[in-house]
Every structure is written in structure tokens, then in C-alpha cells.
Design a protein that fits this description.
It contains 14 helices and 22 strands. The protein is of the alpha/beta class and 498 residues long. The protein has 2 domains: 272 residues, 3-Layer(aba) Sandwich (Aldehyde Dehydrogenase, Chain A, domain 1), CATH 3.40.605; 182 residues, Aldehyde Dehydrogenase, Chain A, domain 2.
Length: 498
């Protein structure tokens, strides 16, 4: 099949416009930006380059839709999300093709993402009818106190390109389940997947103005600032880098928004001497190289205890030898390109820096210009040290750096020596150590003897500079609700006798 794109089963899912107030529209300025296939560098199509004015119009549409949408019952909203979920399942093949086309991940990975993404709609369809308040025993006799949960209001959602479908559904699912309306900013690199989801929302009968998708590439900062500075938007949920998260938080301060941020990671992945070697190698491969290392929870620093270090390095490198890098639609391809040339430059910088400081490249380490500008060999480097860039920065690419350690105390200290704390992983067969280390790691999510922790039922999010708030799970909907307390006075009058 080479680099060519298989035609969609339903061509009407390929939209080149933004979706606002139930209609497909262009930017008011008429400007567009190009979206390219990271595998070939060829242009996929164009999308509207929207600005402040376009964003304000979308916010107004969401605000106009809010009064009636917030009054719908949880069951009604549940049915809408359920329909949207079913449409995603029915169109899974086309959605996967779009993801591979604009993101580059192999088609098998893209199919996995569509399943994961649609499952958020299924999960929150089930949470929508179960937004319970409490009855509170009052301190004052005669008072009766209870709480109800209400939608926070219009939500601004800003998502990244690495999971073009799942990052969106993980935010829109709970927002709609809670009774909020949304303005979602599609990732500039991968807006076609988002537009297909918008088309399916339309087909699912979600009322106009409830879900609005705006697109921008050059104007991303302007759109972001319009969302954060709008007093109509009561909540912002953002997934992306820590630097941008800090900026959005500053911008949101003036209007005191409710915020949830899922920011950068630098996941430690620890293999103890008592680990099962095959399980640890498999887990490390999954965690490190999924989506060519372009996930916020992927292993960034791999710490292996000295007793098993050489064996692990050898077995791990052997597995990487079996990878096939290429265009995502090609038969047998396991790993695709990076998203753009800037990503490749960062990866290369980390590899050269490690080499200069004594790291030994066991496999890979080079760009792959014969395949295209955005390809980099899956790389394993041993003899890593704490001074290297990779130890402190999120690589976001297919480079596995192996650090040697001797004691549990030392590795936990090194693992926690980071400003961020999203995911952490470790492999051990010692039950007491499993509890000890899991509790000692300063991260929001821990994987023990597994390299994959994402699940719609499990709360996703971090601590420290990885942000706050949780997505998915029973906690995910709380981010989109506020608690109202209601007190009734004078309720304790005695019953009159006959």
C-alpha cells in the first residue's frame, strides 16, 4: 500500500471546516492552514485558521445552548453519549484511518485508540444518570441541609495531537454527562479526526451549540487566550506541556476559572533484580515505544538494578531489533514517524547529548531520511547518567535510556528527582516492596508489573508540575460539576397532638 491513504468507507466523515452551533463553517477571515501527513510530508487538506472573533462566536453558541442543555435529565444526556459512542464504534475503521493519516501512528495503534476513545463516551454515558448529592445532618435543630451537583457551565477544552480522538472524548464525555456545553480547540496537527467526531456528534442528535469545535494552527495562542480570558467560560481543561499549562493558568486567574490540567511527564520505569525479566522487557517495550514514544505516560527514564542490568539491556535491545518502522498503513509496520521535524530534532539532541557524556547506543540513534523527514530509529542507550538531558527532559520520542542502580532507596530518590509526576512503573515480585515503592513514588499513577495504565475506569492525572484534576473514572465527572448546598430552616416544629 506504500504511503497512499486508503479511501474512507464514508467520505462524508472527511470535513474541512470547523463545527460551531450545529453548522460547518469557515473562519470569518477566510484564512486556512495546511495539515500534512507526517509520513510523507504531503498535504492532507486545509482547515479554517480561526481567531479571537471566531472563538468568541463559538463561546456565545455554547452559552446560548447551556440553559436548556443543563436542564436535560442525566438519562437523556446518557442516551446522547451512548448514540455518539455507537457511531464511533460503527465508524471505527474510518476514524483509525484518519488518525494514522494525520498523526502517523500505525493503523493497529490507531484502531486501539478509537476503541479507547469511544469507551470514554460509554463510561460517561453510564455516569450521567448517577450525579448524586448528599443529605447532611445539620448542627442546628430544625434545619435540614442537602447538596445538589450542578454543571460548572461553558467549558473550554484544549487537546494535543498525540491521541487525536481519545484526548477529546476524555474531556467532552464528562462535560456533556455533567450537563455542560463545550468549546473544543482541535489540535492544529490533527484536526481531521476531531472534525469526524463532530460529524458523529451531529448524527447522534446532540443539540446545536452543545459541542463546538474550532480549529487553528498559527492562531493557537490567540484562541487559547480568548478561551482563558472569557468570563463566559467557567472551566478550562487542557492536556499538553507544563509550560503552556502555566501560561493558561496565569491567563485564567483574572476570571477565576475551574481548571484541570494534564501536563508533561518524565516517567520513571524501574526494574528490580527480583522482577520477571520477560514481563519487565515486554512492559518496557509497550510503555516506551507505544506511538513511537509520543505519550505523556511513556517510560522516559528506565532504571534497572545492577544484578539484572546487562541481561535486561540485551533482551530489551533484541526486542527492538524486531521493530519495523514505516508509514502507518504499510503491512507489518510497528512504528510510524514522529509528528514533525521539531520532534525529530529534540530526539536527536537527547541522543547526541547522551553519547557525548558516555552513553553507549546499543541500537538506533539516527534519523531515517530514506523513509522521510520525520522518521527516527528506535533507540536504546545504556550507561545513562543523571546529568544527561534525557534524565531531566521529556524526550517524547523513540529513545530508551537505561540507568543502572544498586538500592531501592537510591532508585526511589532518583525517580522522584523531577518537577513532574505523572506516571511511574516498576517491576518486582516482592509483595512488600510493591506496596512500599508504589506509595513512595511521587506520581499520580503507578503501574506495577505492567507498562500500560490507561483505562477509562481508572483516574488519569498527575501531581507536582504534571498538573491537577483527574480524567476518566468516577472522579472525572467531578471536574465538571459544582456543589450547591441548600439549607431549609424551621423544619423541626413539633407535631401537634389531637
Amino acid at each position: 500500500m506504500g504511503h497512499s491513504v486508503p479511501p474512507l468507507n464514508d467520505q462524508s466523515l472527511l470535513k474541512s471546516q470547523a463545527y460551531v452551533n450545529g453548522e460547518w463553517i469557515d473562519a470569518k477571515s477566510g484564512k486556512t492552514f495546511e495539515v500534512t501527513d507526517p509520513s510523507t510530508g504531503k498535504v492532507i487538506g486545509t482547515m479554517p485558521e480561526m481567531n479571537k472573533e471566531d472563538t468568541e462566536a463559538a463561546i456565545s453558541a455554547a452559552a446560548a445552548a447551556l440553559p436548556s442543555f443543563r436542564k436535560t435529565t442525566g438519562r437523556e444526556r446518557s442516551r446522547m453519549l451512548r448514540k455518539w459512542y455507537q457511531l464511533m464504534v460503527d465508524n471505527a475503521e474510518d476514524l483509525a484511518k484518519l488518525i494514522t493519516w494525520e498523526n502517523g501512528k500505525p493503523i493497529a495503534d490507531a484502531k486501539g485508540e478509537v476503541t479507547y476513545a469511544s469507551n470514554f463516551f460509554e463510561w460517561f454515558a453510564e455516569e450521567a444518570p448517577r450525579i448524586y448529592g448528599d443529605t447532611v445532618v445539620a448542627s442546628i435543630p430544625g434545619n435540614r441541609v442537602y447538596t445538589i451537583k450542578e454543571p460548572v457551565g461553558v467549558c473550554g477544552l484544549i487537546t494535543p495531537w498525540n491521541f487525536p480522538a481519545a484526548m477529546i472524548t476524555r474531556k467532552i464525555g464528562p462535560a456533556l454527562a455533567a450537563g455542560c456545553t463545550v468549546v473544543a480547540k482541535s489540535p492544529g496537527e490533527t484536526p481531521f479526526t476531531a472534525a469526524a467526531l463532530a460529524e458523529l456528534a451531529h448524527r447522534a442528535g446532540i443539540p446545536k451549540g452543545v459541542v463546538n469545535f474550532i480549529t487553528a494552527l498559527k492562531n493557537t495562542a490567540e484562541v487559547g487566550e480568548t478561551i482563558t480570558s472569557s468570563n463566559t467560560v467557567r472551566k478550562v481543561s487542557f492536556t499538553g506541556s507544563t509550560g503552556v499549562g502555566k501560561l493558561l493558568m496565569k491567563q485564567s486567574a483574572d476570571t477565576l476559572k475551574k481548571l484541570s490540567f494534564e501536563l508533561g511527564g518524565n516517567a520513571p520505569f524501574i526494574v528490580f533484580d527480583d522482577a520477571d525479566l520477560d514481563t519487565a522487557v515486554t512492559g518496557a517495550i509497550t510503555s516506551k515505544f507505544r506511538s513511537s514514544g509520543q505519550t505523556c505516560v511513556c517510560a522516559n527514564r528506565i532504571y534497572v538494578q545492577s544484578g539484572i542490568y546487562d541481561k535486561f539491556a540485551e533482551a530489551f535491545t533484541e526486542k527492538v531489533k524486531g521493530f519495523k518502522v514505516g508509514g502507518g498503513y504499510e503491512e507489518g509496520v510497528t512504528h510510524g514517524p514522529l509528528i514533525h521535524d521539531r520532534a525529530v530534532s529534540k530526539v536527536e539532541k537527547h541522543v547526541r547529548d547522551a553519547e557525548e557524556q558516555g552513553g553507549k547506543v546499543l541500537i538506533g540513534g539516527q534519523k531515517m531520511p530514506d523513509l522521510g523527514d520525520n522518521f527516527f530509529q528506535p533507540t536504546v542507550i545504556r550507561d545513562m547518567t543523571a546529568d544527561m538531558q534525557l534524565a531531566h527532559e521529556e524526550t517524547f520520542g523513540p529513545v530508551a535510556g537505561l540507568f543502572k542502580f544498586d538500592t531501592e532507596a537510591e532508585v526511589v530518590k532518583n525517580a522522584n528527582d523531577a518537577d513532574v509526576g505523572l506516571a511511574g512503573y516498576f517491576f518486582s515480585r516482592d509483595l512488600q516492596r510493591c506496596y512500599r515503592v508504589a506509595e513512595a513514588l511521587e506520581v499520580g499513577m503507578v503501574g506495577i508489573n505492567t507498562g500500560l495504565v490507561s483505562d477509562p475506569a481508572a483516574p488519569f492525572g498527575g501531581v507536582k508540575w504534571s498538573g491537577f484534576g483527574r480524567e476518566g473514572s468516577k472522579y472525572g465527572i467531578e471536574e465538571y460539576l459544582t456543589i450547591k448546598m441548600i439549607t431549609l430552616g424551621g423544619m423541626g416544629q413539633p407535631l401537634q397532638g389531637s
